[in-house]
Design a protein that fits this description.
With about 375 residues, this protein is an alpha+beta fold. The chain folds into 2 domains: about 230 residues, Multidrug efflux transporter AcrB transmembrane domain (Multidrug efflux transporter AcrB transmembrane fold, Up-down Bundle); about 70 residues, Alpha-Beta Plaits, CATH 3.30.70. The chain is built from 13 helices and 6 strands. The strands form 2 sheets. A 4-stranded antiparallel β-sheet has the order 3-4-2-5. Strands 1-6 form a two-stranded parallel ribbon. A hairpin with a 5-residue loop joins strand 3 and strand 4. Helix 9 packs antiparallel against helix 11. Forms a complex with SecD. Part of the essential Sec protein translocation apparatus which comprises SecA, SecYEG and auxiliary proteins SecDF. Other proteins may also be involved. Belongs to the SecD/SecF family. SecF subfamily. It comes from Streptomyces pyxinicus. Keywords: Cell membrane, Membrane, Protein transport, Translocation, Transmembrane, Transmembrane helix, Transport.
């Protein structure tokens, strides 16, 4: 941990630096490849929407010895639709059937009671109508759209429109990757998934705004100097906050990984999967986009400005001039001059005057 702290301090002081902005085309290519994979997954497999979004019924049975596989088969035969069955901690079963007509719920319930060998009155049925599920989906999309608009407005006011555009692209990148992985994995999309998405968008913005704030501070009077271009200062901003971003991401991922892999996978609490997967993927994607997408994109947009183009020319011209001056000093002529006139090191002793002391009261010649 001390080594990581020393690394962070050296990155912050600029003693070492990783060229994130200079290699931005590589990061863009990786992001495009991942995004295309996510879009293909969405187009081919689609999202497994929960009953909250498409309507259906949830049947909760008393404690039973019937296995999850058998209960799933019974539910699909009774309803004619795919069913999701989860074993609860009490030994009861939660049977979820999406897309069914709620008017047939009593018939399905009676059939399940016979197959599971329990009384119909012992099975609890919760129904969700298709219109209500569609309303939930529409409200979720409206909330996401309002969130995006408010984010763009805030960033445009607090920073500038280029940073707002870069942050919006990073957010869309994170959402696309997260939903694409949901489609590929096949996890059910529930209101918990929407909550997870909104949570990771806020986290992604936090990480991005930290870098943008550092960049804004360091580029306040950028045109008054000729040492660094805008892209180089942007790269310094990323390096200065790199270890902080890594630390916050790792700390946030550890409990989420516990929910996903231990709670949802090892312990079988499937209800945790919907929110934990969106948090896990979104947190990782948000950290990636804030470092490799948002800030390099801002640098690309800013370098198109006439003032930044002129600054880049001045910086490169000064460096070329300095390199040429060093080349002349290190050339053959410079070497001969150094050999002819050796450098004087230390204080230079002046010859003593023979007439020192003449004409002064204290001066005596002997």
């Amino acid at each position: 941990m001390s080594k990581l702290g020393n690394l962070g301090a050296r990155l912050h002081r600029g003693e070492i630096s990783y060229d994130f902005v200079g290699k931005r085309k590589i990061w863009y290519g990786v992001s495009i490849l991942i995004t295309i994979t996510a879009i293909v997954g969405l187009a081919v497999r689609g999202l497994n929407m929960g009953i909250e979004f498409q309507g259906g019924a949830v049947f909760t049975t008393p404690k039973t010895s019937v296995s999850v596989a058998d209960a799933e088969r019974y539910a699909e035969q009774a309803s004619g639709h795919d069913a999701v069955v989860q074993k609860l901690g009490t030994g009861a079963l939660r049977i979820q059937i999406a897309g069914i007509d709620t008017g047939k719920s009593d018939q399905i319930k009676d059939t399940l009671a016979k197959d599971l060998k329990v009384g119909p009155e012992q099975i609890n049925a919760d129904l969700v109508g298709p219109s209500w599920g569609e309303q939930v989906a529409n409200k979720a999309w409206e909330g996401l759209a309002i969130f995006m608009v408010l984010v763009v407005i805030y960033l445009a006011i607090a920073f500038e429109w280029r940073m707002a555009v870069a942050a919006l692209v990073a957010l869309i990148h994170d959402i696309t990757i997260t939903t694409g992985i949901y489609a590929l994995v096949g996890f059910e999309v529930t209101p918990g998934t929407v909550i997870g998405l909104l949570t990771i968008l806020g986290y992604s913005l936090y990480d991005t705004v930290v870098v943008f704030d550092s960049l804004k501070e360091q580029t306040k009077d950028i045109t008054k100097q000729t040492r660094f271009t805008y892209s180089e200062i942007a790269n310094r901003s990323i390096n200065g906050t790199l270890v902080r971003s890594i630390n916050t991401t790792v700390v946030a991922l550890l409990p989420v990984a516990g929910l996903l892999f231990i709670g949802g996978g090892f312990l079988g609490a499937g209800t945790l999967n919907d929110i934990s997967l969106s948090l896990f993927v979104g947190l990782a994607a948000g950290a990636y986009s804030s470092i490799f997408i948002a800030t390099p994109l801002v640098a690309d947009l800013k370098e198109r400005e006439p003032a930044m183009k002129a600054l880049t020319k001045r910086v490169l011209a000064k460096r070329a001039q300095s390199a040429a001056g060093e080349g002349v000093a290190d050339g053959p002529a410079g070497d001969d001059a150094d050999e002819a006139t050796p450098a004087v090191v230390g204080p230079r002793n002046q010859p003593a005057s023979r007439t020192r002391g003449r004409g002064r009261p204290s001066g005596k010649r002997r």
